[in-house]
Amino acid sequence: MRMSFGLEQKMVQKQVLAPRMIQSMEILQLPVLALQEKIEQEMNENPMLEVQEQEASDQDDNRHEEAESRAESEQEFVVEEGKDNADDFERLLEMDQQYPDTFDERPQRSSGQMEEDAERRMDALANVQSRPETLQDHLEHQLSELSIDPQLREWSERIISSLDSNGYLTTSLEDLLPADATDELKELAMEALHVVQSLEPAGVGARDLRECLLLQIDPSRMFYEELRMLIMNHLEDLRDNRLPQIQKATGFSIERIQAAWSELRRLDPKPGSIYNDAHVANVIPDLILDVDEEGNYVVQAEDRDIPQLRISNYYRERLSSPTATREEKEFIKRKLNAAQWLIDAIIQRQNTLSRVAQAIVDYQKDFIENGPEHITPLKMQQIADQVGVHVTTVSRAVDDKYIQTPRGIFPLKQFFAGGTVNEAGEEVTWDQIRLRLQEVIDNEDKAKPLSDDDLVKKLKDDGLNVARRTVTKYRKKMGIPSSRQRRDWSKR
């Protein structure tokens, strides 16, 4: 091994992304809501950025108001004859550095702009969803209405706070108790557990699945005795559809077991999950698909919800002003460059999104016209080659983006699908194979359901050569049980 402590020169080829390129890629990847937040953040940090007014008349009025506002608000910094106010500007720079989040060096906004910003913030607040009620909130509200001993209430609250998101007590009572707990304290904790288990929804506070299901039935329920027997002794047999074994052990008929099983399915194995915060966020499409007069599909980037930015004329003029100090000019240039970079990145984002989406739509016309089952196999590399960009650019462009079509709103990623070739040499997507697999299983004889090997043969009859392991993988992904579990024992 050669070791050297001397200096030597070596040429290395290395690819380094410029900051401007990095920012462009980051902006491209942002969905419309995240882009709005990014623009709002940049406007708060960069005084050179302004929202461009839509109406010319409004522009003139605002410029006039801004001029008046500047005249009133910046009298301290007016450059007088023989004085360059360097000390004042240095103080302004120091304040910007010391208080970057609170000090705004932009000229005072007009009343019209402030009113518009206030309305925008009010709209944003109105669209913020309030915190949904949690399972703990719901249980504690019920507990507060009970007339019970304070110690019992305290232990009930402790148990409630220990429940998981599905309503189960996964921690043992012994772990909640102190090491030197007396028998009386243990009895109190058990009584508190019973209090919690008496609350709604039925089944909360259970320590396992059997207890959860038993808490949801009572003697007045149909098939109570059968349900109790099945829950206590035969949950695994039900899972594997071993009804003859249950029949032999209980003496119940197959029809009676199936009727009780149907009633059992109405119980909730995760009673607390209904309070989980699983709301679906509103989707705002980044792209709109329209049909022109000639019947062609035309994609346009949605920009109504994206503020149109421009560089402040005030700071442009200030940059060329002979009274501006060197520090002031450097400050303005730095902010101007950052503002222009952002504006260019947004324009490039809209352009790239439109080109990529247009190429996707042109390729997937059958999808648009006839539905998802008519999707054509498509890879991102194909779109990248057609548009003339790198495949990672396509990946960033379609990530978390949605397009509004005459058939509905779809994520752009849904238009990409892998596939195979059938015996006729035609390309078939995996989604189409899954649809055919579902159709075959729906139409099978439930007295003799098809095994995975049988499913492979059925698909082959349709010209689809699919391996058995692939059929098994898709069946499990689709939530379809095995042939033994699909068997209907009443049709023997």
TrEMBL record:
Q: Name one GO molecular function term.
A: nucleotidyltransferase activity
Q: Residue limits of the RNA polymerase sigma factor 54 DNA-binding domain?
A: 330-487
Tell me the superkingdom of the source.
Bacteria
Annotated region (Disordered), positions in chain: 44-85
Q: State any GO BP term from the record.
A: DNA-templated transcription initiation
Taking every annotated instance into account, which residue ranges of this chain make up the domain RNA polymerase sigma factor 54 core-binding? 126-315
Composition-biased stretches (Basic and acidic residues): 60-73
**UniProtKB keywords:** DNA-binding, DNA-directed RNA polymerase, Nucleotidyltransferase, Sigma factor, Transcription, Transcription regulation, Transferase
Q: Does the keyword tRNA-binding apply?
A: no
In terms of Pfam families, this protein maps to: Sigma54_AID, Sigma54_CBD, Sigma54_DBD
Annotated Gene3D superfamilies: Homeodomain-like, RNA polymerase sigma-54 factor, core-binding domain
Entry-linked InterPro entries: RNA_pol_sigma_54, RNA_pol_sigma_54_core-bd, RNA_pol_sigma_54_DNA-bd, RpoN_core-bd_sf
Instruction: Answer whether the UniProt record assigns the keyword Cell division to this protein.
Output: no
Q: Under the cellular component aspect of Gene Ontology, which terms does the record hold?
A: DNA-directed RNA polymerase complex
Q: Which PANTHER family match?
A: RNA POLYMERASE SIGMA-54 FACTOR
**Similarity comment text for this entry:** Belongs to the sigma-54 factor family.
Tell me what this protein is called. RNA polymerase sigma-54 factor
Instruction: Give the species this sequence originates from.
Output: Blastopirellula marina
Q: Which gene encodes it?
A: rpoN
